[in-house]
Amino acid sequence: MNHLSETIRNHIQAHWPMLCFLKPNAQEIEFWFSHGQALENLSTGPKFYVQGFNPQEPVHVWSGDSFDCTQVNLKDLEQYFAHQHPSADQSWSAPTQDHVRLAYEGLIQRAVDAIQRGIISKVVLSRVQGFHVPEVDWLYLMLRLIHTDQNTFRYLMVHPKLGIWCGATPELLISSEENNFSSMALAGTRWLEGEEFPEWTEKEFEEHYWVVREILGTLKPFADASQNEPHDHQAGSIQHLRTDISGSIRTPYSVLDLARSLHPTPAVCGFPKKTALNFIGANEGYNRGLYTGYLGLFNPEQHWAEFYVNLRCMEFKDDRFKLFVGGGVTRDSNPNKEWIETQRKMTTMGQVIAPFIEQR
């Protein structure tokens, strides 16, 4: 494990291409290391796709056969750190800065006003918050990331052009095997109040059904799709409304066509898509980068793919982690409640980096 830890640290310090990931409910962590060597655009083997939030930006593709790949069992990693970090984790809460809160609540109110004037139906708005971390044990951070939620796609990536990113995303954009595909609408959020979750409100159901209808409409030219009934989806201490969507891809289309058409979904952008994108660009005040983009694996030889929306993620740059959070805005949104929702969502990644923040 010491050699593995050193290899990760060397790649991060030198910005050499590197990828660590764990699929939902898997026990094997996969590591792709370049060791500073030039990558080849090979036609064989698995591919890793990365697309930023802006759909006009190019998708970045890595070929797994161009890396040195290895696997580590999760239990081995847990055993390695068992005696180094034996104490129980303390709860972490996102700090509140009044000027940041007022700015975000003002942004939400502008969106509500635009919705009430009929300019837009729904928009998803976000914010970013930075935390200084003077030193990071990257292998231990990966273990903490893995433990956030076993139902998520968890990753740590060093990309020379895109930067250093990691996350634990619960949202599947689309997966496929042969011509069969699966997707999901994940929108509407509630969190524990005491020991119970409150009832879903009309606002959450409205937000959710916007997403379901838009996904089905987007898929219609490419595939035959059907939906299941909505149900609760647990994501750590938060629950979302989730509707599973599945079907078959029509010839001559592929899963890549479906991924491109779905992105960005109304769960991370809004509806109508173009109007929502314009509103975000004009009002959000920062570049999302890879946040709410998508990433994942595609193996054309074995005819399968898994792409995930890049949620619950953070970027590392200049000794700082930038944590990204957001939520859907409809005509019934309350700016203060939206702020509270982002504060609670931030705890997912905040818990991951908490030990390193406390070193300051």
Straight-line N-to-C gap: 26 Å
Work out the number of β strands.
18
Q: On the 0-100 scale, what is the average pLDDT?
A: 93
Share of β-strand residues: 25-35%
The largest pleated sheet is described as: 9 strands, antiparallel
Rg from Cα = 20 Å
Poorly predicted spans: none
Secondary structure class reads alpha+beta
Strand order of the largest sheet: 5-2-1-7-8-17-18-6-14
Order of helices and strands: HEEEEEHHEHEEEEHEEEHEHEEEEH
Overall 3D form: globular
**Percent helix among the residues?**
25-40%
**Helical segment count:** 8
Structure commentary:
There is one protein chain. The chain has 8 helices and 18 strands. The protein has helices spanning 2-14, 74-81, 98-116, 138-146, 202-219, 255-262, 273-283, 335-357, and strands at 18-22, 28-33, 47-51, 60-63, 68-73, 122-132, 153-159, 163-169, 172-177, 180-191, 223-227, 231-235, 238-249, 270-271, 294-299, 304-309, 313-317, 320-329. The strands form 2 sheets. The chain has a 9-stranded antiparallel beta sheet. Strands 3, 4, 9, 10, 11, 12, 13, 15 and 16 form a 9-stranded antiparallel beta sheet that branches. A hairpin with a 2-residue loop joins strand 9 (172-177) and strand 10 (180-191). Helix 3 (98-116) packs antiparallel against helix 8 (335-357). The mean pLDDT is 93.
